[in-house]
Specification:
The protein has 464 residues and is of the alpha/beta class. Helix content is 41%, strand content 13%. The protein folds into three domains: 12-78, Winged helix-like DNA-binding domain superfamily/Winged helix DNA-binding domain (Arc Repressor Mutant, subunit A, Orthogonal Bundle), CATH 1.10.10.10; 98-122 and 364-459, Aspartate Aminotransferase, domain 1, CATH 3.90.1150; 146-358, Aspartate Aminotransferase, domain 2, CATH 3.40.640.
């Protein structure tokens, strides 16, 4: 096919992308040709699976190849109107999932982050964490050893009580504290998903989960989102066709669309889970940001077929990686063992800090203030985007996100390249889709998207 030089200063991913593109441009790889599977390519060329996933993601985003469920990756026809010319930039920006994650976790250089998935530091409960830290410094807290496998008991009991307020009745032994919701999702995926399994997930949905499932060898199956939740007819058809084992979903204040599923839709999802015998993994990480008391899949099911996941990182501090999952007792023991194998225990120090913040007398006021600021941010940003000619997928008026597209934009990755050159991190739509196809949609974080730099950049779209 082409050679890869591990000693070259050019990154392996860039070598693969460049080599594949040259073969497609020259006609050596014709439209419709099936590419080697990710694992096959990795074994043949002596590179990691992660590297190949990254390279294939870039080629899909650039319009060179396409992904077909259960079939693999194929060369796209270059005469297709959706096929993309190379974006006109020379900067070091590659809007695939790995680039996006590295910008989040390895770089704080970008001035503006309307594509981010977290709140600005000034919006978080920093003072509550500082008070909790001072209280810990003044008591006789024993921080030797590894702590409890399932996590700090007082925090697990507090989670139990919080879930009871949401009408999920469990014991503290059914709560497992994790290093954020990401670890919780990873533990569940490793317990439930095997190579070749068809796994249903929201489309668009959580970018990191999609990457993780592909790495496990699963076949992601699209469950299209609507402003009221799910396209139920399509959902059932795909469950029946692919015999899915698991459905990963975010019913409330969904990322990236901001939408929430209705009660009737939640009931129907559980009926389908019972009829077709699959597990539902409910990711409810934005529950504290929701001013409305809504039923959850977990409250309707009482953890019979549902595993419930949430986190404190979004409202207290992303730096304190504390999340949790709740499940049936039998499933909990398996998940706890997996946690022990992967990392022994989670950080009791961080869990105690979170417990102190949650029991701080000002916590409830912080949450109310946060919800009010987000509601105001939604109203302002929605008006701005509509005035600029954007179409909104939904207007949730709560949570972090608005999902929008502009008629002049066919591929939001191109806009993201241009934004990156001005130190603006955008959330281009293809990062969140199951098929990784070029998308006109963009995820906007209402807490970040209204600074002057971003608004001036977007204003350039008006009249196009």
């Amino acid at each position: 096919m082409f050679s890869i030089d591990p000693q070259s200063s050019v990154p392996l991913v860039s070598q693969i992308v460049s080599g594949m593109r040259q073969m497609m441009d020259s006609g050596a790889l014709r439209a419709g040709t099936k590419l080697p599977s990710i694992r096959q390519f990795a074994q043949t060329h002596g590179v990691s699976v992660y590297t190949v996933v990254d390279a294939y993601d870039r080629l899909v985003a650039l319009g060179y190849i396409m992904s077909q469920s259960h079939s693999g990756f194929f060369v796209r026809s270059r005469s297709s109107p959706t096929a993309l010319a190379e974006p006109g930039h020379t900067g070091p920006y590659n809007f695939d999932s790995i680039w996006y994650l590295r910008q989040i976790f390895e770089s704080r250089a970008m001035r503006s982050k309307p594509g981010a998935g977290w709140l600005p530091g000034s919006w978080l409960f920093v003072e509550g964490v500082r008070r909790s830290l001072r209280n810990m410094a003044n008591d006789d807290t024993e921080l030797g050893g590894y702590g409890e496998l399932k996590g700090y008991l007082l925090l697990r009991q507090l989670v139990r009580d919080q879930l009871a307020a949401r009408e999920v009745v469990i014991s503290a032994e059914q709560v497992l504290l994790t290093q954020g919701s990401t670890q919780a999702l990873d533990l569940v995926a490793r317990r439930l998903v095997h190579p070749g399994d068809a796994v249903l997930l929201d489309d668009p949905g959580y970018a990191n989960l999609l990457f993780s499932l592909r790495f496990l060898g699963a076949t992601p199956i699209s469950a299209p989102r609507t402003p009221s939740g799910y396209d139920l007819d399509t959902l059932e058809a795909r469950i029946r066709e692919h015999k899915t084992k698991v459905f990963f979903t975010q019913p409330r204040l969904h990322s990236p669309t901001g939408s929430s599923a209705t009660l009737a839709q939640l009931h129907r999802v559980l009926q389908l889970a019972e009829k077709y015998d699959f597990t539902v993994v409910e990711n409810d990480i934005y529950a504290d940001l929701d001013p409305q008391p809504r039923p959850t899949l977990a409250s309707l099911d009482q953890l019979h077929r549902v595993i419930y996941i949430s986190s404190f990182s979004k409202t207290i501090s992303p730096n304190l990686r504390v999340g949790y999952l709740a499940s049936s007792p039998a499933m909990m023991e398996d998940l706890a063992r997996l946690k022990m194998i992967a990392g022994l225990t989670s950080s009791e120090f961080a869990e105690r800090l979170i417990y102190g913040a949650l029991t701080d007398g000002r916590w409830r006021k912080h949450i109310k203030t946060l919800r009010d600021k987000l509601t105001k941010g939604h109203q302002q940003l929605a008006n701005i985007l509509l005035d600029l000619g954007f179409e909104l997928f939904d207007e949730p008026k709560a949570g972090l996100f608005l999902w929008a597209r502009h008629p002049s934009i066919q591929n939001s990755a191109e806009l993201a390249y241009k934004a990156a050159e001005q130190d603006i991190l955008m959330g281009p739509g293809h990062l969140f889709t199951v098929d990784l196809e070029p998308s006109p949609w963009i995820r906007f974080n209402v807490a970040w998207a209204q600074d002057e730099i971003v608004l001036n950049f977007l204003a350039g779209l008006k009249g196009k």
